[in-house]
Specification:
The chain has 227 residues and is mostly helical. The protein has one domain: Glycerol uptake facilitator protein (Up-down Bundle), CATH 1.20.1080.10. Helices cover 74% and strands 0% of the residues. It has helices spanning 2-31, 37-60, 66-74, 80-104, 107-113, 126-149, 159-176, 182-192, 200-220. The longest helix is centred in the first third of the chain and has 30 residues, at 2-31.
Length: 227
């Protein structure tokens, strides 16, 4: 039982940390009239992901993202049953995180921002939002394979993976919120009951993860890493 609960708990806590700090940064930025700014929000996401991935990497693999779990399943690095349990733990962590944000952080700012729910810019179509989320997620999942999964990976913990959130949010944040993570989008959408364009935050990351998983599994991972 402990062998099963240990990685699931790690995924729950890792996702809780990412979503609490990530959505919390959005709420606090609004509450302080933009004092954090896009760079501050991006840094909050980047640093918390780097820490959470590093903390959970040796326990669960540090997925903290259904898209990452999906890509690793495609590459044969995790079984289907375990992968589904990981995703459920990640979604649960995201929901609890947003409930804590709703309870603890300024209420008006939380309501105005949908508790950090990612939103598609008015001049961006749903198709473009899906493609953008796919590209941003491709970079994220590639970092996971290149710095954590591959036997040739440099020993940098979650630092490089966290950095992807920094540059992805700086580019995609104003357009789609740069979620790159269905759990990051699902938690606030559920609590705020704001599902506008929500398909983009599942389909986009799934597409990006699938392409990255295929390329890394078939072409980029060293042969011995596929055994």
């Amino acid at each position: 039982m402990r062998a099963t609960l240990r990685p699931l708990t790690a995924e729950f806590l890792g996702t809780f940390g990412l979503v609490f700090i990530g959505t919390g940064a959005v709420v606090i930025d609004y509450a302080t009239s933009g004092r954090l700014g896009l760079l501050g929000i991006a840094l909050a996401h980047a640093v918390v992901l780097a820490v959470m991935v590093t903390a959970t990497m040796q326990i669960s693999g540090g997925h903290i993202n259904p898209a990452v779990t999906f890509a690793l399943w495609m590459a044969g690095k995790i079984g289907l049953k375990r992968g589904v349990l990981y995703v459920l733990a990640q979604l649960a962590g995201a929901i609890v995180a947003v409930l804590c944000v709703k309870w603890l952080l300024p209420g008006e700012a939380g309501a105005k921002t949908g508790y950090g729910v990612p939103r598609i810019a008015a001049d961006l179509t749903l198709i473009k939002a899906i493609v953008l989320e796919a590209i941003l997620t491709f970079f994220l999942v590639s970092a996971v394979f290149g710095t954590a999964v591959s036997r040739e990976a440099p020993r940098v913990g979650g630092f490089a993976i966290g950095l992807v959130l920094l540059f992805d949010i700086l580019v995609g944040g104003p357009l789609t919120g740069a979620a790159m993570n269905p759990a990051r989008a699902f938690g606030p959408a559920l609590i705020a009951n704001d599902w506008h364009g929500h398909l983009a935050y599942w389909l986009g990351p799934a597409l990006g993860a699938a392409v990255a998983g295929f390329i890394w599994a078939k072409l980029l991972l060293p042969l011995e890493a596929k055994d």
